[in-house]
Amino acid sequence: MLRFALLRILGAIPTLFVVIAAAFLLVHAAPGGPFDSERVLPPEIEKNIRAAYHLDEPLPQQFARYIKGVLQGDLGPSFSRREYTVSEIISDAWPVTFLLGAMGLIVALSFGIVFGLTAALRRNTVVDRVLSGLAMTGISVPVFVVAPVLVLLFAVHLGWLPASFSGGTGAGRFILPVIALALPQLAYIARLFRASMIEVMESDFIRAARAQGLRTVSIVRHHAMKPALLPLLSYLGPAIAAVLTGSVVVEQIFGIPGLGQHFVNGALNRDYTLVLGLVIFYAALIIALNLVVDLLYGFLDPRIRRQ
Q1: Residue 255: helix, strand or coil by DSSP?
Q2: What is the mean pLDDT of residues 84-111?
Q3: How far apart are CA 273 and CA 168, in angstroms?
Q4: How far from chain centre, in Å, is Cα 122?
Q5: How many CA atoms lie within 13 A of 159 on its CB side?
Q6: For residue 159, is it within any domain?
Q7: Which of 203, 196, 189 shows the shortest CA–CA distance to 225?
Q8: CA gyration radius for the chain?
Q9: Between 120 and 53, whose confidence is greater?
């Protein structure tokens, strides 16, 4: 397993480099610049500002300079928030995004497994059809539609929860964002776990367990649950990526001061270093979490360890 982990880490290095290069070229290819929103400056002053941030250099030279800074742990200064560096902005904002994503993933996994298991054990019944229909609806409706509907229902009409993150205190202000973030993944997980559980329950070793007189609850708990979780564990990598990218939309809608809101503001303000720093952070985090998922998969499936 150690060799497997080291190979995955080494393989992540070129992947991360390609992500940085693509993000660097796309950000600089966008029209406008980081100082377009400023008042009109004399040409000599604007030239000095661009020189101070090395924006007057050729693009390959800027990229080489940026890569050198990244290798030294320096993500550069923010163009739109000049009193902060990109590293400081990320260190201040990532706990909120991490908490939001972790809660959304926990809710999606908990309810998705319960709904998927219920639908699988009651296959082709009314319960199965209702849960499958709700899951398909959750998959079909995107986050940017779910979030405003939740605000309209629970905040505006019913008045149970705050409509924005700053409009409440305590854990209540997280409820609507977490639900909006978790619902699509909950639907995917429920459908995936239902299909996996149905396949496992039709296996030969489950028939043998039934022939021994074991109850369904005991069979599910001791024999079927672990192999049924393997496809779900494989989906955790894409699920984590979806939760992290979905938090960008959710944070913007609910006004949450996390990485997603900084990413949107950085893109609108052409803050090259802030956008690139957030892309690197997201990419490194997703790669690391995918590595953890692969290691957990090997722990649950001995065949992976032998390979």
Answers
A1: coil
A2: 87
A3: 32
A4: 32
A5: 0
A6: yes
A7: 196
A8: 24
A9: 120
The secondary structure of the chain in percent helix, strand, coil, rounded to multiples of 5, reads 80, 0, 20
Question: Average pLDDT, stretch 34-51?
Answer: 63
Contacts of 110 (CB under 8 A, 6+ apart): none
**Cα four-point dihedral sign 145, 95, 243, 277:** positive
Q: What is the mean pLDDT of residues 156-175?
A: 75
Is residue 264 situated within a structural domain?
no
Please state, in angstroms and rounded to a whole number, the distance separating the CA atoms of residues 136 and 4: 36
pTM for the whole structure: 0.76
* pLDDT tens profile 176-220: 888 888 888 888 899 888 888 888 888 877 788 788 877 878 888
Query: Tokens representing 268?
Result: 């609108």
Q: Which tokens belong to 46? A: 């604007």
Neighbours of 224 (CB within 10 A): 24
Residue in 206, 234, 246, 199 with CA at minimum distance from that of residue 222: 206
Question: Which CATH number does the domain housing residue 132 bear?
Answer: 1.10.3720.10
Residue 259 tokens read as 């990485």
Q: According to the 3-state scheme, what is the secondary structure of 178-216?
A: HHHHHHHHHHHHHHHHHHHHHHHHCCHHHHHHHHCCCCH
Please tell me the total count of domains within the chain. Answer: 1
Q: Is residue 32 part of a domain?
A: no
* Closest C-alpha to 297, from 225, 219, 235: 235
